[in-house]
C-alpha cells in the first residue's frame, strides 16, 4: 500500500453491524490493514457488551462507539465516563439532546482522560439520521424548511456552542458544514455507498470519492464491505476508487 492509499485507508470507518463477537472480530482481522476505525453500534454492543471494545482494540483496531447517547445531562455524562475509560477513539451523541447535555459530555470526557493519562475520545454530534428526509422530520414535529436547515442548526449548537469535536452528517451536508465550521471540526459521513452499490435504507447517500472530495474526514461504510464475498477485496476497491479520484 503506497502513502496515498495509507492516507485514504485512515479515513475509512467500517461499520461492524453484525450480531456476534466472532463475526466482528473476524472482520477486524480481515480489514485492519484496509480501514482506520471500526464502528460498534447498538446491535453489536447490545449483543456483546463493553468487552467487545477491548477485544477489537487488542487486535489493533481503533473503536468508534456509535451508541448516540441522548438523555438528561447527568446520565449522558456518566455514560461518557464509562466509554472514555474503555479507551474508545470516538463516540456519538445526539445533537438534539441539547447544549447542556453536550457540554456535560465534553467536560467529563476531558476530565476522565486527563485523570487516566490517555487521549480524550473525539465526541461527535449526530444531526439528522441519514434514513430521514424532510417528510420524516416534519412528521416528528420539527419545523424546518429543509433537511439542510435542520442539520446546520443542530451542528451549530453542538460545535460552536458546546465545543463538540465533530459532526455526523449525510454526504448532502458535508461540504456546507465544512465551509461553515472549518477544518478543525471533524466531519464523519455515513450513508456512503460505492458505485453500483444498493442504498438499502439510506435516503441521503454519496460515493466514497464524492464524500471525501466534499470534505469528509471519515466515511462510514458497512454492508458494501462487511457483506461482500471478500470484505478485504471490497475495501481495497474502495480505497482505489478514492485514490483515483483525488
Model description:
The protein has helices at residues 3-9, 21-31, 42-48, 51-58, 73-86, 99-116, 134-140, 147-161, 171-181, 208-213, 223-226, 231-245; strands at 12-15, 37-40, 62-69, 90-94, 122-126, 166-168, 186-189, 218-221. It has 246 residues and is of the alpha/beta class. It has one domain (3-245): Aldolase class I (TIM Barrel, Alpha-Beta Barrel). An 8-stranded parallel barrel has the order 1-2-3-4-5-6-7-8, surrounded by 6 helices. Strand 4 (90-94), helix 6 and strand 5 (122-126) form a beta-alpha-beta unit. The protein is globular and about 45 Å long. Residues 198-204 have low confidence and may be disordered.
Task: Explain briefly what this protein structure is.
The two termini are 16 Å apart. This protein is α/β, with parallel strands linked by helices and 246 residues long.
Amino acid at each position: 500500500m503506497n502513502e496515498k492509499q495509507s492516507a485514504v485507508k485512515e479515513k475509512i470507518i467500517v461499520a461492524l453491524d453484525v450480531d456476534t463477537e466472532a463475526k466482528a472480530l473476524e472482520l477486524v482481522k480481515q480489514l485492519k490493514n484496509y480501514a482506520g476505525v471500526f464502528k460498534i453500534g447498538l446491535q453489536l454492543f447490545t449483543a456483546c457488551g463493553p468487552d467487545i471494545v477491548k477485544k477489537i482494540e487488542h487486535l489493533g483496531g481503533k473503536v468508534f462507539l456509535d451508541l448516540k447517547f441522548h438523555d438528561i445531562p447527568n446520565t449522558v455524562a456518566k455514560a461518557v465516563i464509562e466509554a472514555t475509560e474503555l479507551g474508545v477513539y470516538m463516540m456519538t451523541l445526539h445533537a438534539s439532546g441539547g447544549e447542556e447535555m453536550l457540554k456535560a459530555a465534553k467536560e467529563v470526557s476531558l476530565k476522565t482522560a486527563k485523570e487516566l493519562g490517555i487521549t480524550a475520545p473525539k465526541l461527535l454530534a449526530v444531526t439528522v439520521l441519514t434514513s430521514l428526509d424532510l417528510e420524516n422530520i416534519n412528521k416528528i414535529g420539527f419545523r424546518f424548511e429543509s433537511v439542510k436547515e435542520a442539520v446546520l442548526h443542530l451542528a451549530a449548537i453542538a460545535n460552536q456552542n458546546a465545543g463538540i469535536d465533530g459532526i455526523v452528517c449525510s454526504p448532502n451536508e458535508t461540504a456546507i458544514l465544512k465551509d461553515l465550521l472549518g477544518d478543525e471540526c471533524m466531519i464523519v459521513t455515513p450513508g456512503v455507498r460505492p458505485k453500483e452499490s444498493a442504498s438499502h435504507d439510506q435516503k441521503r447517500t454519496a460515493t466514497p470519492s464524492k464524500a471525501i472530495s466534499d470534505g469528509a474526514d471519515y466515511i462510514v461504510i458497512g454492508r458494501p464491505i462487511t457483506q461482500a464475498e471478500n470484505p478485504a477485496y471490497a475495501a481495497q476497491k474502495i480505497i482505489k476508487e478514492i485514490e483515483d479520484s483525488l
